[in-house]
Please model this.
Amino acid sequence: MEVLEAGGSYRDLDRNGQDLSGQDLEGCSFSNCLFQGARLRGANLRESVFSNCSFFDPQAGIASELNYAELTGARFSRCDLSTATLAHSNAYDVHFEHCQLQGSDFSGTDFALSIGRRSTLVRASFSGCNMSYADLSNTNLNEATLSNCRLVEALLHNTDLSGADLKGSDLSNIHASALVLKGADLRGGTFNNIDPRTVDLQGVRIEPEQVAYLLGALGIIVD
Model:
C-alpha cells in the first residue's frame, strides 16, 4: 500500500475505513480519492487540497471522522463530507466549494487566528454547499462567507455570524439560540424563523421582498 507523505500528490486513492489519525498530510493534493469511514482524528491537513473526494459511504451510512484535525488553509472542492465530524478542529482560512456537508458536525471548530494577545482574525469560506442539518454551534464565523449555501434545519446555537456573507443562502427552519447576525448580508436568501426579538439584526442587509420573512416570525401577515 502506498505510504502517504506530506506534500504528496495522490489520485484515485482508496483509504476507505482506514485509521489515518495523527498523520502528517500537510500540503498534500488529493483528487478523486476515497476516505469513506476513515479516521483522520488529529491529522495534519494544513494547506491540503481535496478535489472530488468522498468521505461518506451512502449505502452503509458511514462517514469520516476529522475531529481535532488541523485544517488551516485546507481546500475542499466538490467533495462529499455528509455527516462527517470535524468538531474542535483548527480551520482558519478553510474553503469548501460545492461540497455535500449535510449533517456534518463543525461544533466548536476554531475558524480564527490569534493576532496578539486580545485580537483574532476569522477567515472561512463555504460557497454553494449543502449544509442542511449541519451543526455550526459554538463557532465564531464573524465576517465569514457562507454564500449560496443550503442551511435548512442547521444548528446555529451560540454561533457568531456577525458581518457574514450569507447572500443567496437558505436558512429555513434553523435552530439558533443565542445566534448573532449583526451586520450580516442576507440579500437573496430565504429564512422563516429568524425572530427580531431574540436575534441582533442591527445593520443586517436584506432586500425589500425579504421584509415579510422577518414580519412572519412576529406573526404579522403581509398581504
